[in-house]
Amino acid sequence: MTLLNVGQIAVFRSLSLCLGVLRAAPIVDLGYTRYQGAVDAELNVTRFLGARYAAAPRKFAMGPTSGSADDIWRTTRNLGA
């Protein structure tokens, strides 16, 4: 490996890390509400923390709406934490 190749590899790695930071946060549309998650590029994992889910008597029924269909719930942290 020449010094030029090592330099090119270093530049490529730093650019690929920057692109990981620039990725848009993923949004999941459930029809009645939308959730925005967060990407952990280091672990290559997408996380949706603190997302609401049906509580007891609703169990499998559609959850409550967020008000407007255009609202996005940001689920980037646990609600209890």
Structure summarized in a few sentences:
The protein is of the alpha+beta class and 81 residues long. Helix content is 25%, strand content 19%.
Gross morphology is elongated
Mean pLDDT: 71
Q: Which strands sit side by side, in order, in the main sheet? A: 1-2-5
Uncertain runs are none
Summarize the biggest pleated sheet.
Answer: 3 strands, mixed
**What proportion of the residues is helical, as a percent range?**
10-25%
H/E series: HEEEEE
Number of helices: 1
Strand residues, percent: 15-25%
Overall number of structural domains: 1
Helix/strand/pairing class, anyone?
Answer: alpha+beta
Round the Cα radius of gyration to an integer and report it. 19 Å
**How many extended strands?**
5
Intertermini distance? 49 Å
Signal peptide: 1-24
Keywords: Signal
Description:
Keywords: Signal. Residues 1-24 form the signal peptide. The structure is a single chain. The chain is an alpha+beta fold and 81 residues long. It has one domain. Helix content is 25%, strand content 19%. Strands 1-2-5 form a 3-stranded mixed sheet, with no helix packed on it. Strands 3-4 form a two-stranded antiparallel ribbon. The protein is elongated and about 60 Å long. The model has no long low-confidence stretch (mean pLDDT 71).
